[in-house]
Design goal:
The chain is α+β, with helices and mostly antiparallel strands. It has five helices and eleven strands, in the order βββαββαβααβββββα. A hairpin with a 2-residue loop joins strand 7 and strand 8.
């Protein structure tokens, strides 16, 4: 982990292993449903009645089951939704793209493996947990943000002179070397562009999309990494700013 001596390591967390069951018992084949493979599909679609239903129908015809839907963003004429879907074993995720984009005006931004439930808007629950345990508040925030924003990892960093170090981190936060996050302090949440904002190289592996929001005093920030994308949208940056600001206020008032 990133300690006071610099940016150091955190082990990557492997996705939960699926437990297989013996399909036969006493000579009879089990009636349990075969467990499929889950994906998170981000789609941009026309913001008009019937669009999401048409996508759902197309996905169903391709053999996919929709497990949950989360509204990411609404803008004039368009909507961005995250769909948690399950495919039968052996079906390639490409069929999801083909099916969704068969609906006129629909564009698939990304498809990535999905584990667990599609938790939506659980900021208040996280804030409540942090309020009840302010001593562990930074760690709770770092661990909770990836679930809320469906990202791979999160960390809270601080700049001190010409070096930066982490104050808290989630599982799967990348190993890093000591360096200077010269873009701190932040005035608002931003998408981190490695061409403009220096970050340790491991942060950008696996085509990771990065975002950061001010946290606490000006030289601290909440950084979130989303390996493989999709890119963080303005509505997500606004939510990240709001959450980081509230938690910093809670911890400041109880610290």
């Amino acid at each position: 982990m990133l300690t006071e001596s610099g940016l150091v390591c955190a082990a990557s967390a492997a996705p939960p292993a699926s437990s297989g069951a013996d399909p036969t018992r006493g000579g009879f084949v089990s009636s349990e449903r075969t467990v499929g493979v889950s994906f998170l599909l981000r789609v941009v679609l026309p913001d008009k009645p019937g669009s999401l239903g048409a996508v759902a129908t197309a996905l169903g015809n391709a053999g996919a089951d929709i497990l949950g839907v989360n509204v990411v963003e609404r803008s004039p004429g368009n909507a961005v939704d995250d769909l948690a879907v399950e495919l039968p074993p052996g079906r390639p995720p490409d069929v999801l793209i083909t099916a969704a984009e068969s609906v006129p005006g629909v564009e698939v931004e990304s498809v990535r493996p999905h584990f667990g439930q599609l938790d939506t808007h659980h900021e208040l629950e996280l804030i409540e947990d942090i309020t009840g345990d302010p001593a562990g508040g930074m760690t709770l925030l770092a661990e909770g943000v990836p679930r809320i924003f469906r990202a791979g990892w999160a960390m809270i960093v601080e700049r001190d002179g010409d070096r930066s170090f982490r104050l808290a981190e989630s599982a799967a936060a990348p190993e890093t070397r000591e360096g200077d996050l010269h873009w701190l302090p932040l005035k608002r949440a931003v998408v981190i562009d490695p061409a403009l904002h220096w970050v340790p190289e491991p942060w950008t592996e696996l085509d990771t999309e990065l975002a950061a929001a001010p946290f606490g005093h000006g030289l601290q920030a909440l950084v979130v990494g989303r390996p493989g994308g999709p890119a963080f949208r303005p509505s997500e940056l606004a939510r990240l700013t709001h959450l980081a600001g509230i938690v910093a206020t809670v911890l400041g008032s109880q610290g």
